[in-house]
Design brief:
Length: about 260
């Protein structure tokens, strides 16, 4: 996903022609020095680099990932870190169970709470703590078909307080991200994202506006790839927004998440 030119504009000359397709959307800018990136906080950092940053002598990757998630909350790396934690072996997740259960009860930190749930659900059923034996995720899927610049379906419905595993299938020829945002926030978030598109900071943030109305974030997903985002639906019924905030996309690439 980082081939969009987040940091390595300099090597694009040696990249296959279609790998840098998203370059066409934004003016070329000077490459940020790699050292300026924080692999545990920033969006657009390859998973291999994150894993390197999380691998420390004497600490499991699972434990280091959880520490990073707890320090991260609304940072750009949240979803990538949650995916890493959820993919670690049960032996690495089990020592974290008390902390994960505590996070699961804390509704004030929604991103960390969803990461904890994702890790707990990843444990084999017979090794899950009794408190979450019945925790189940509801699977939803949004697709972007080639050239459509829109989500299919345009509307999803789910119960309040549900753990959702949202799959995004990018069948298009360009990158897209996917944000869950508060009811009525579409144009506010969309305009802010377009503004981000004008600067290098926007690329580093993967065009995710810094707003409390942004509730969950799946970073940019490359063409032909699938992204995954876990979140709890709010307990408050309402029509929430699922939107791609790549500059210029939000007007067409928005769908409704009806929570009721
Ligand atoms: Cu898009």
């Amino acid at each position: 996903m980082w081939t969009i030119g987040l940091i390595l504009l300099a090597v694009l000359a040696s990249t296959p022609p279609d790998a840098g397709h998203a370059q066409g959307h934004a003016p070329a800018e000077a490459a940020a020095p790699v050292a300026a990136l924080e692999p545990l906080r920033d969006a657009g950092v390859p998973t291999t680099d994150r894993l390197k940053a999380l691998t420390r002598p004497g600490t499991s990757v699972g434990a280091a990932t959880w520490q990073a998630i707890e320090a991260c909350d609304r940072c750009g790396a949240a979803n990538d870190l949650a995916a890493i934690l959820g993919s670690r072996p049960a032996a690495e997740i089990e020592p974290l169970v008390p902390a994960l259960l505590a996070a699961l009860k804390d509704e004030s930190r929604a991103v960390i709470r969803a990461a904890a749930a994702r890790a707990l659900v990843a444990l084999p059923t017979d090794r899950r703590p009794a408190e979450v034996k019945d925790l189940r995720e509801t699977a939803l899927t949004l697709q972007c078909l080639r050239g459509r610049m829109a989500w299919e379906p345009k509307e999803l419905q789910v119960l309040p307080g549900t753990l959702v595993r949202l799959r995004m299938e990018n069948g298009d020829s360009m990158v897209h991200n996917l944000l869950l945002t508060a009811p009525g926030s579409l144009s506010e978030i969309g305009v802010a994202a377009d503004k981000l598109g004008e600067g290098l900071e926007g690329k580093r943030r993967q065009y995710v506006p810094d707003s409390t109305k942004v509730m969950a974030v799946m970073g940019l997903v490359d063409p032909g790839r699938v992204g995954e985002l876990w979140f709890f639906t709010p307990s408050k019924p309402g029509t929430y927004v699922l939107v791609c905030t790549y500059p210029g996309h939000w007007r067409m690439m928005n769908a409704k998440l009806k929570v009721k």
